[in-house]
Amino acid sequence: MSASTNTDLIQYLLRLGDSAMVQAQRLCQWCGRAPALEEELALMNVGLDLVGQARNWLEYAAELADDGRDADHLVFRRDERAYRNLLLVEQPNGDYAVTILKQFFYDAWHFAVLQGLCHSGDARVQGIAAKALKEVTYHLRRSGEWVERLGDGTEESRRRMLAALPQVWRFTVELVDADAIEQRLFQAGLIGNPEQVALDWQHQVEAIFERASLPVPQPASHFYLSGRQGVHSEHLGLLLAEMQFLPRAYPDATW
Amino acid sequence: MYAQLVETGVKRLKTLEEMSEQERAFQERIDAEIKIEAKNWMPDAYRQTLIRQISQHAHSEIVGMLPEGNWVTRAPSLKRKLQLMAKIQDEAGHGLYLYSAMETLGADRDTEIDKLHSGKAKYSSIFNYPTLSWADIGAVGWLVDGAAIVNQVVLQRTSYGPYSRAMIRICKEESFHQRQGYELLLTMMREGTQAQKDMVQDAINRLWWPSLMMFGPSDEHSPNSAQSMAWKIKRQSNDELRQRFIDQTVPQLELLGCTAPDPELKWNAERGHYDFGQIQWDEFYEVLKGNGPCNQERVATRRQAIEDGTWVREAAVAHARKKHNKNAA
Prior knowledge:
The complex is a heterodimer of chains A (255) and B (329). Chain A is built from 11 helices and no strands. With 255 residues, chain A is mainly α. Chain A has a single domain, classed as Ferritin. Chain A is globular, with a radius of gyration of 18 Å. With 329 residues, chain B is mainly α. Chain B has one domain: Ferritin, core subunit, four-helix bundle (Ferritin). Chain B is 66% helix and 2% strand. Chain B has helices at 21-31, 44-63, 65-72, 78-103, 109-117, 134-155, 161-191, 194-213, 225-230, 238-256, 281-291, 295-308, 310-328, and strands at residues 266-268, 273-275. The interface between A and B is large, with 47 and 52 residues. Chain B: InterPro entries: Aromatic_CoA_ox/epox (IPR052703), Ferritin-like (IPR012347), Ferritin-like_SF (IPR009078), PaaA (IPR011881), PaaA_PaaC (IPR007814). Chain B: It holds the Pfam family PaaA_PaaC. Chain B: It comes from Pseudomonas sp. Y2.
């Protein structure tokens, strides 16, 4: 692997790991507050899968970077400007309509991305993706079913979904809009075709929204923030302050 | 123990002669160690006692997610975060098992949960104490789950089949949590800084006595025990179980290099047990009545969750009905 490809791949692994980690952190905030016991179980289950995936991606990123930091260091000691997660996953949980839409958009994207990564020229990436894909298949099925239930449930649930949609939709621009790093990694055969990811995502959203009788909005437009470049919304800093408190307060500690 | 002070509604045990034929057949079945199953005849007081006990147990699993959930967003490493999330997930699962076991007795889950939210039903007193540092999470795993296991291992032999089978499944997962909790503390004590060691001792100081209270009132003040023991819902007395817990926990405490906040705690060679100091029973009864440190917050959080989630559950029901009608058409 050339040095520049190596740098690109590290960036990309951070994106995958950080998104999974931040999404899981949001799910943790639901603990004890979910609308049903079965949902407590499901939210924690999905979160657990995602923390496991974050650890796998970030361990590999740390090995490639080889600068003395490990996965824990990457999670608990990086500031928000160094985080590379999607803007979508850092958004607050809101009500269950917001939470479900965020989860669904992320899962549909995640599923398409992982399918591509299962054919990566990098064996390690391929292996992690294959394991993650099994988990995300379940996540997507679950969140898709909830979109359907809430979109085509009661008047109240539909009203809430319609209110949540514009709040969440604008952040989907990052899911379908590949940048130069992704293009180069695709050319190098390390990740799947970003255009395919965008198409698969769009189809998945259209299919589920149709079943939920929800309108698919026009494609979201760029709005001057980029989680992938470390330019986040104001929510991430607070999320990290909570998540990183202990390792920051006790830097010499072993947990 | 996750169920404390369960009312049986029975003032005095009946002798076999005083029992009706049905009651006698039931008691003989109990005495012969044959499990009672959902469709068997049972005295109404037995049924009601079990509903109270199993629902209290289930509520404890659910309310018990909150003190740990308080730290799940702040767990200090990936490994610890994964462990805690898995544990909380298991607890939600235990709650589901137990509500199912309770429903075999004809009780309704939502009705019993309403009783929790209106303050009529109890849950374990331990979950009314706050988690103030990360070490509390280890101490909860070690002491609280440890106390629960001592109780639940015995309940695997409880006379009601569905409850007994739920306990067998739950104990397997619970033992795992307890070992993880202890390992968490051991890591802080052996590899940690002085600040971490202080954190561990402080957690033990605050949670030691509340853990001992989990076994319920002392035998002399446990008016419901005799009937529960005769029915073999309970298999051992509160004080016996508490003593067993202390005897097995003190060596673990010593291995940690920590102390208990009890100057009277010492080995009694004559008894072959540890002697220990007086439990603050006033505190126990106050906490159980609702005047503990976190009672209001715990119940309010659970009530809020179910209230806020009403529209979600209603949507799920409405959607299922639409789908059903579509398929039927």
